[in-house]
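Handout, page 2. Input:
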Amino acid sequence: MEPFYRDHLELRLMLAVNDQGNVMRRLIEEHGFTFPVVKVDKQGLEIMRNTIVPFAYFLDNHGIIRSKGVINNRAALEDLLHGSRDLGPPA
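Output:
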């Protein structure tokens, strides 16, 4: 995810993890993430209307969700990014 982030610095990226046993710290150290990584508990997932992490939301400049989905590799991030570009204005 770090290479994706560096290739798309115009985006705001944040990774949400369900931290069990210092997963968050290990991810940051192993992958050298320079973007925010936050811990999300069950209540946070419910607020986001989500049940799994890692999950990404792409928002437009007005804060409207344009694309969302599970992300577990760069290809998934790219698919979401291109999907967000293909969506028209909200109805």
